């Protein structure tokens, strides 16, 4: 794919990123968000973080067409394991299942992470994944 084709396939900056982000979130988490604009603000410290995530992560990254949502889920789960970000991992395990990952796929990512991120991170990821799956 050429640079021009990538630019054309990627969402443009601006208000469209918010819409692209909301659509990507709805696709990844069906039934969680109502139709129309999404507001996750709660009036507390740092409430704008969700808006930043909606546009920069979901709109700029998850809405891109170059990787399938399943592939993005594999990458995201692996990175969250490496970072030790168990809270986000729980959410992305469920998103991964929505995006076509199997429980076995997720287990393989955890096993593989033991060799690269370390055994303690893999154990923590296994614990978080079990919690996310209700085990």
Automatic annotation (TrEMBL):
Residues 58-131 form the Carboxymuconolactone decarboxylase-like domain. InterPro entries: 4CMD/NDH-1_regulator, AhpD-like, CMD-like. Residues 1-20 are annotated as: Disordered. It holds the Pfam family CMD. This is Carboxymuconolactone decarboxylase family protein.
């Amino acid at each position: 794919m050429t640079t021009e084709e990538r630019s054309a396939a990627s969402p443009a900056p601006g208000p469209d990123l918010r819409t692209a982000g909301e659509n990507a979130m709805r696709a990844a988490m069906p039934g969680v968000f109502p139709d129309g604009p999404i507001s996750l603000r709660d009036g507390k410290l740092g409430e704008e973080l969700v808006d930043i995530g909606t546009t920069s992560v979901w709109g700029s990254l998850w809405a891109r067409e170059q990787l399938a949502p399943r592939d993005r889920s594999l990458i995201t789960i692996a990175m969250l394991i490496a970072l030790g970000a168990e809270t986000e991992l729980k959410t992305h395990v469920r998103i991964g299942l929505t995006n076509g990952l199997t429980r076995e796929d997720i287990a393989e990512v955890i096993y593989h992470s033991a060799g690269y991120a370390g055994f303690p991170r893999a154990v923590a990821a296994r614990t978080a994944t079990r919690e996310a799956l209700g085990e």
